[in-house]
Amino acid sequence: MVLRFQPRSATTAKSSRRPEPALLLPARDYVTTVRAPDDGNTSAPIGSLALYGGSAVPVYLGAAIAVPMALPVEEWQLCAARRWAALDPALRERLTAASLSLHDTVRLGCGLLRPEVEAAALQRLCRRARVAKEPAAALFYREEGNRLFGRRQYGAAVRLYSQAASHELPGSPEVSLCFANRSAALFHLGCFEVCLEDIARAESHGYPDRLLPKVLLRKAECLLCLGRLQEAADALSVVENKIAMDGIMTSPTHQTLLGKLSQLKVKIHEKESCSEPAREACGDVQRASEIWEENDSISGASSSLSLNFDTERGRHLVASQDILSGQSLLKEEAFVSVLCPGESLLLQDSSETAWDTRVTNADLYCHRCLRQLLASVPCCGCSYAKYCSQKCADMAWEQYHRTECSLGPLLLTLGVFCHVALRTVLLAGFPEVRRLVEWSHDDDKDLHNTEARCRHLSEAADTRAGSRGIPGCNDSGQYQSSYQAVFNLLPHAEKHSPEHKFLCMLSVVAICRQLQEAGLEAAVLNQESSEKWSKPKPCEETSGELSPELKTVAEAMLRHMLQLQCNAQAITVMQESGFRDDAVVNKKPVRLATAFFPVLSLLNHSCSPNISVSFSGTAATVRASQPIPSGQEVLHCYGPHRCRMRVAERQRLLRQYFFECRCQACLEELKSDVKSVVAMRNSFCCPACRAPMQGEDMLCCSNEACAISVSRESLSHRLQDLQQQIKNALELLRARKADQAIKMLQKCQMEAGNLLSPEHLLMGEMEDHLAQVYATVGKWQEAARHLQRSIEIVEMHHGPSSVEIGHELFKLAQILFNGFAVSEALSTIQRAEEILLVHCGPQSTQIQELQEMKTCLLELPRSILQRT
Ligand SMILES: [Zn+2]
Ligand SMILES: [Zn+2]
Ligand SMILES: [Zn+2]
Ligand SMILES: [Zn+2]
């Protein structure tokens, strides 16, 4: 069993009792929390481990590559394609013309969405997205929650009660029951602050009076646990008065209540008599703020950058002075972001009765600020939007959700890009949208094609006009994260395929039509009276023709749709899979949201970038991942990274951005004799002599004496079998059969040794899985040994100072920490810290956890230190 000790800085002045046993550092990104098997009296965590995703190496999710749900559902794409194919050839030709402006595209396209065909088809597709509040669903989720609560699966119960609450009508007694039940589960999870919030919510939504004492007692207990003794005592006297007023209680429930009441009174008294003065929040929690001098002309950027322009590279950022590794270069709040819904939300073939209990992004993150949700506040109108707080819910409503709420099914059907396009316009406000759309029409006349515009601009740059002539800059030459900057991101309208443009246009028109039909036009045009909660009045006559204002909106949205293909930035996060109750909580990287970051968008792509981007909520921070000498361009990787893909694959993926990558890595690899690092490392080995195999369809042993040859197909089959067996082993782990899982993984390793090169990523993954299994059963030494081998392989692929190695070392530090390997833990912490500081900065949760671990280790009693 693991000894428990308390990391000092993890205890704040506010909480006198930490709910989790001491070793549990807050389970955040990259942390896998190992929990004790349910022994019947506790579901408490016993320690904290590191990332165990499906792979040892976090999958890099770049910008907009291969994004699920970015585009409309397939059926709608097909419907649009049929419409396109059946268009009058003359009209199709006009729509295909490269010189056709967005304005004319919308004008021509408006009437092409036929109510009885395309609109009807879309309506049918929308029925699959269930985002309305349904009382039957509420009941189902609540009962399901109660069932799991009974089985002490409190984390899962919290999620289900949240689902239930999202389907109840606001202010109904039922919704208050959901909040009260959820507060009980939160209490068991030790989330006292959130529990108190839920109790307050239950009270404010009309929780039944007769049930109140129980909830109020919970409140007192929470306050007690949080060390807020006076408030706890006050809460108790409220309960006492209530019970006294309600008359004599004889039922067993009330007897229990009274018993509990007196117990709590004793506890409060004890605490008060021996209470030490509450510790002040220690000063060392404050991190040294980073040196940061903001750029005069680019908002959010460091003064060591400058915005340049030339015909070849377009707008780009260059180091105007020498930049150090780890220096932060850019901090930007997304102009707009839209949470990516979970896959299961739409694509399931949902029958009427079966409700989905699977958890999706939509349940896990605040739909406005993207903070992780524990106890969500549902939208008052739909069951889809959920928020971290009432404040976020109100702000989202005010800014965009009052328009989006009733469009939920349509937006889910048409995909995230459409949703981002609409929200961008709503956030900008109609007057600004109109101003820029009209301005772009003048611009179309002046400078008809991009080439002329570029010439014009490079002339401007040559004549030292500064950044004044660069698109997106305001009159004084400043580039800010504004709608103007978003509007000026390149839509590449002439480069998209006509079919794609048509699909985007038809989708945008469908949204605008629905806005008009639902009576939301006034809201969109900011002409609405201030009654923000009022229901929109559906429009009486639906002529089908869009108003001129909505045509302007449609044109702006079409522009944003086209821009997104090149300019969408993914906000990614490490996500827990499974509930908090599971023995091992896995973390895997997921794309959380799609956003516009107009300043970040100034960075060009390289397959071998010199920066790292990290996200916190909807904010992005860019840091130099290596020293950047003055004059060098600052480069971002849009996804295809040289350590992750071969050059051919990278070039194929980069085609969506309408450019051919000519970065150093690509140029080198394109010279035929240089093999990609990825190809060399992820290769097969000879089954006889284990030398590397070479060739394409038929692989030959590179050892001439051996001369064995095997078809790639048969090797690939064996690889697939192996991957399946690894999956089975992980299933065993999930079923808490650690011994069997270990045996199976060892067998896999034996087989892999005859098939894969020793540096193959899968070899590393198996070591990582073994480390995970050993950690689950508390065998920290074995876990560390296996993880170290996995790290060697990750290092070969990504380099010793890569962010991937940082995460792996973080994991190792936690294992060594839990295993009391003090000196090894300390040196690993230091290495992890050095690397993660560069990529994620001092404020990142990992850095803070590493520092907590260090403090804790340094304070260990000498007796323990000597033992190690
Ligand atoms: Zn929020
Ligand atoms: Zn809503
Ligand atoms: Zn490249
Ligand atoms: Zn051989």
What helical percentage do the residues reach? 40-55%
Shape: globular
Quickly give the structural class: mainly alpha
Largest sheet: 3 strands, antiparallel
The portion of residues forming beta strands comes to 5-15%
Cross-sheet strand order for the largest sheet: 5-13-12
What descriptive keywords fit this protein?
single chain, 868 residues, mainly alpha, 3-stranded antiparallel beta sheet, 33 helices, 49% helix, globular, binds zinc ion
Structure notes:
This protein has 868 residues and is mostly helical. Helix content is 49%, strand content 9%. It contains 33 helices and 17 strands. The chain has a 3-stranded antiparallel beta sheet with strand order 5-13-12. It has a 3-stranded antiparallel beta sheet with strand order 6-10-9. A 3-stranded antiparallel beta sheet has the order 15-16-17. Strand 7 and strand 8 form a beta hairpin. Helix 3 (102-109) crosses helix 22 (548-567). The chain is globular and about 85 Å long. The protein starts with 30 loop residues before the first strand and ends with a helix. Mean pLDDT is 79; it is low at 1-66, 277-288, 345-353, 458-466, 530-534 and 578-585. It binds zinc ion (4 copies). The site of one zinc ion has 6 residues, from loops.
